[in-house]
UniProtKB/TrEMBL annotation:
Official protein name in the record: Predicted Zn-dependent peptidase
One GO molecular-function entry: metal ion binding
Lineage: Bacteria, Pseudomonadati, Pseudomonadota, Alphaproteobacteria, Rhodobacterales
InterPro entries: Metalloenz_LuxS/M16, Peptidase_M16_C
Species of the source: Rhodobacter aestuarii
Domain Peptidase M16 C-terminal: 191-349
């Protein structure tokens, strides 16, 4: 009898273990023939759907580059069959759902997050706006005017003009530069609803779209949701994007802005695309270099200039192919040249021997974030989508902590030496009220002049 009780207890324990489900990822095909990735997250309250539609609009010289920015807002706000303009925001709020569209030079991104019990209704609303948007003229006018006002405000900031100058220097007068800077600004006010409709019809199609759905949702329900959301879209044509061109040759540029209250210093260089790997090494290096008030650059500027301000480092990109490292900060005008020398020296020394501190401790926030990502449908689906765009498996979103375990002092040091631009290869740009604050620099008075700095 004792053995039977023990055996029964073991069966109960085994059953309990089997009942606890783990997050998983799979590639599936909907009944309508749409391929998607499903991230199953047990006990998640929400379901999230992420979509990336490829686009080459930002690389085309025959179109208005302001149009996609207006279109991303107009598709959802401008109404659809059965949904009056402006209604979707309140309806989504009632459903405790969120829907967003955003655009980059490479993709139009769509996100829909809703509680499980409201997913069907949220998908119905989003599908109507994706398949049959009304694009109300009144809402077009409102969005266009707001966009123009926002860009005018941004253009009044000297630091923003500095980044415009960098785009002129690196990209030249190309469609990509115009798309990123939304310059000339007249393209906002000359954009038409017809152009937005043309962009929409070329972009929001089934062909080439990457789709991820995440949450506590079965394959049958996931496939049904994907079909309901996308099956009414036309198949469309495959987008063929040409490779963007860029010139990262080192230059020293000073944008003279007499009305600037202080000076801004930026050093920039190129990095390999994320699809080539080692992204965690890059993030950790940027963190140690200029991520907080204990970082190498922050300390170097504070100590070397005896200043009350700091200096930071970050990673960005003009497109998925054109990724950059940016070192930047506000600097006292009289100390601008000295600041450049100090930042260059600190950066150069860092590349030779990265001061990472306790690497295990530095990785902990990233690991904790990775663990949270695997439990949150919105974060998991977004991470999985980025992985798909880099040619990785969607399971990437569930393995971030284990990937971080592979990062060592040796891999970090190797990455700094092989992938990060050398100090002498950086482009330097200063925005300053003093035209002589950066000796030897190419002095300009408008961003466009940076294209001629060599």
């Amino acid at each position: 009898m004792k053995h039977l009780v023990a055996a029964a207890f073991a069966v109960i324990l085994l059953a309990g273990c089997q009942e606890k489900e783990n997050a998983s990822a799979a590639t599936e095909t909907s009944p309508g023939g749409i391929t998607y990735a499903r991230i199953y997250i047990p006990e998640a309250d929400d379901v999230a759907i992420q979509i990336a539609w490829p686009t080459n609009w930002a690389l085309r010289g025959d179109v208005n580059q302001a149009v996609p920015y207006i279109g991303t807002d107009l598709i959802l706000a401008g109404g659809a069959e059965g949904f009056p303009p402006g209604e979707v925001v309140e309806t989504f709020a009632d459903l405790k759902a969120e829907g967003h569209l955003s655009v980059t030079p490479d993709y139009l991104f769509g996100e829909l997050v809703a509680p499980k019990e409201n997913l069907v209704k949220a998908v119905e609303i989003a599908a109507a706006h994706l398949a049959k948007p009304t694009m109300d003229q009144g809402w077009f006018d409102r969005i266009q005017q707001g966009f123009a006002a926002n860009m005018a405000e941004a253009a009044s900031q000297p630091a923003n003009n500095g980044y415009d100058a960098l785009r002129w220097a690196i990209l030249g007068d190309t469609p990509l530069r115009r798309a990123l800077s939304v310059d000339p600004p007249e393209m906002i006010t000359t954009a038409t609803r017809a152009e937005v409709m043309d962009w929409y019809q070329q972009t929001v199609v089934r062909k080439g779209a990457k789709v991820v759905i995440a949450g506590e949702i079965s394959e049958a329900d996931a496939g049904g949701a994907v079909d309901a959301l996308l099956s009414r879209l036309p198949a469309g044509k495959a987008v063929v994007a040409s490779a963007p061109t860029a010139d990262f040759a080192p230059r020293r540029i000073l944008l003279h802005v007499p009305t600037a209250q202080t000076s801004t210093l930026v050093l920039m260089g190129s990095l390999p695309p994320t699809r080539e790997g080692s992204e965690f090494e890059d993030l950790l290096l940027a963190s140690a270099l200029g991520g907080d008030d204990k970082s190498v650059l922050f300390d170097a500027v504070r100590t070397g200039l005896r200043a009350s301000y700091g200096f930071g480092a970050g990673l960005a990109g003009y497109s998925r192919d054109l990724r950059v490292m940016v070192l930047s900060g506000e600097v006292e005008t009289a100390k601008l040249a000295e600041a450049e020398t100090i930042v260059r020296a600190a950066y150069s020394a860092f590349l030779t021997a990265p001061k990472m501190g306790d690497l295990t401790a530095r990785k902990e926030p990233f690991k904790a974030n990775g663990e949270r990502t695997a439990t949150l449908p919105g974060a998991a689906s977004s991470s999985a989508l980025m992985a798909l765009l880099d040619g990785e498996d969607a399971n990437f979103a569930l393995t971030l902590p284990s990937l971080l375990n592979k990062v060592t002092d040796a891999t970090v040091q190797a990455r700094a030496a092989s992938a990060f631009p050398k100090a002498e290869a950086l482009i330097v740009l200063a925005v300053s009220p003093d035209a002589a604050a950066l000796p030897g620099a190419c002095v300009i008075t408008s961003p466009a002049e940076a294209a001629n700095c060599r």
